[in-house]
Write a structure and sequence with these properties.
Blueprint lengths: L19 E6 L5 E5 L2 E5 L1 H7 L1 H8 L8 E2 L2 E6 L3 H11 L4 H4 L4 H14 L2 H14 L22 H11 L6 H11 L2 H6 L1 E2 L5 E2 L3 H17 L9 H4 L9 H17 L21 H23 L13
Parallel strand pairs: 1-3, 2-5
Antiparallel strand pairs: 2-3, 4-5, 6-7
Helix pairs in contact: 1-2, 3-5, 5-6, 7-8, 8-10, 8-13
Amino acid sequence: MSSSNAPPPKRQRTEDAPVTRSDIWYSDGSVVLQAQDTQFRVHWSLLAQNSSFFRDMQALPQPPDQPSVEGCPVVRLHDAVADVKNLLTVLYTPMFPLERAASFQTIASVVRLGRKYEFRKLLDWAVDLVMSTSPTDVLSYDEDFPGEDIIDCPGLGLEILTLARENNILGALPCAYYRVVATYSQKELFDGVSTDSDELVSLPSIDLRRCILGREALISAQMKPGYTLDWLSTWVPSQHCATAAACAGKRDKEFRRCMSNPAVHALDYSVPFGSGSFCFECSPRIKQLVRAGKWKVWEKLPSFFDLPPWNELKNDL
């Protein structure tokens, strides 16, 4: 038979593809987890202790044709290799949450696989970190982002928002949306943000729409009566102010500054105090007005992003 008539070579089956042994490989392990073409040799006892999913699986009788490696049954997982490795790294490092700050990739892996395979303690740890960046009460809100427990990186706010929505961490959503619209420009929202590894982080369309509309609504609302920047148009110097003309002039200057570059200041606005700023009499009143405005914004924050009120936003894990 000529080579032109020879049948085409058969495509190699996925299960026959070369398998890579991960560096998470314990010689006394009793089960091999395989994600894609990578295997991890670990301990049934540790999996069962931390996951009701694997505890139930361990109790099932093993089929006679169960594949094995070095006498250990092979359990195939339909998950990304990186997610499995990140989860197992945390699982095998009991002091992990106390010893180091976590990368977003580690937190995301634990959230996804913690939900799927019911690693409740690990899931609670990862969700607590997400909630620390996006709290449900205004007293816990902090302009410093992301905090000392999460390693900062380009596009982190976008990734936290997407992770929270996709995994029903509903309590984090209002603050996560707010942080995005207050941190990133419209160009970054539409075009995405480049990471340190030159990957592009962008929002799904549902989140992009909420951010664009929410940003517009917040910029409009923050100037309305009772909100954060209302004082710029309604406040007048204290009757005890010895420099009323100067304080009024500073208010006008700040008003022009905010209006010349519209941005979301509803929760992050800081009155420009210090040298050459408002007088001793006027400063406390302005601070009080700004603080009251922030509280009002926080109370209504979910509505700006078409979300249910705070009391209905319960994490569904």
